[in-house]
Design goal:
By secondary structure, this protein is α/β, with parallel strands linked by helices. The chain has a single domain, classed as Divalent-metal-dependent TIM barrel enzymes (TIM Barrel). It contains 9 helices and 12 strands. Helix 2 links the parallel strand 2 and strand 3. Helix 4 packs across helix 5 and helix 8 packs across helix 9. Bound molecules: zinc ion (ZN). The site of zinc ion (ZN) has 4 residues, from loops.
Length: 280
Amino acid sequence: MFKHELRFGPAGMPIGCKGKTLVEGIEYVSKEGLNAFEVEFVRGVRIKKEIAIEARKISEEKNVLLSCHGPYYINCCSPLKEKQNITMRNILQTAEAAALLGAYTIVFHPGYYQKQTPEKAFDNALEILKEALRKMKEKKIKNVFLGLETVGKKSQFGGLDENIELCKKLGLQNARVVVDFAHILARGDIILKTKEDYEEIFSRLRKGLGAEVLKQLHCHFSGIVFSEKGERHHVPIGNIPPFKPLAELISEKKYNLTIISESPFLDRDALKMKRIVEGI
Ligand SMILES: [Zn+2]
C-alpha cells in the first residue's frame, strides 16, 4: 500500500532523462525529488511483463506512485458495437498493464456525445464501464481504479458533474474522478482564477462522493490554449489556469493530491509546481 501524500510527477518519460526504459524514467523522477509517474499508453498498450514487474519493484522501492493513461481510442458512449469492442479492449489492456505495474489507477477520457443526448451518452458509458468492471473481476484485476478524467472539449462527454455521477453509480471502490484542471477551465465548466474557484471543484467532489475521494485525488495540471469549443492544446504552466491559488489551497487544507504535469515541460513543470507549494 502506498503512502497518502501530496505527489508530483510527469505524464510520461521525463525530458532530461537519457535512458529510454520505464525503469530509468522512474529512477530519474525519484532522483529529481518527484514521487509520481503516469505511464502513457495513449497510442496503445504495449509493455512486456518482465519490464512491468521490474518497474513495479523500482517504483515501490523509490516511493513513486504509478498510474496509467489509457489510449485515445476509448469512447464509452458510442452506440456502435464495433467501437464498444475497441473501447472494451483498450480499457482492459490498460487495466491489465496497471495491475502488473502496481499502478493505482488507469486514466481515460470517458467519451463523445456525437449525436446523442447527454443522458443517452451517460447510460451508454455506464453500461460499458460496468461490463469492464465485471471483466476486470474475472481477470482478477484488483486495486486499480477506473479513472474518469474531466474532459476539455464541449463535444466530449465527461464534465466534472457527469464524472461525479458516473462514479457514484459505479461505486467509489471501482471508479474515481480524475481532475484535469486545465480541461475544466477550457470546457467552460468552472472558470479557474481564485482559490475559491478551485475549492468549488473539491467541494462538488466532497458533496457528490464523500471526503474519501480527496484522500489521494488523481489530477492533471498544465497550461492550456482554448477556444469556444474548448481545449486546443496544452502549454507550459503559466497563468491560464494559474497554479498559485491551487498551491495555496493545497497547503491550507493539506490536500493529498497526485498532480501529474501534462505540460510540454513534463517533469520540469512538475518540479516547478512542487516548489511553488513548498514556497508557501
Ligand atoms: Zn489530462
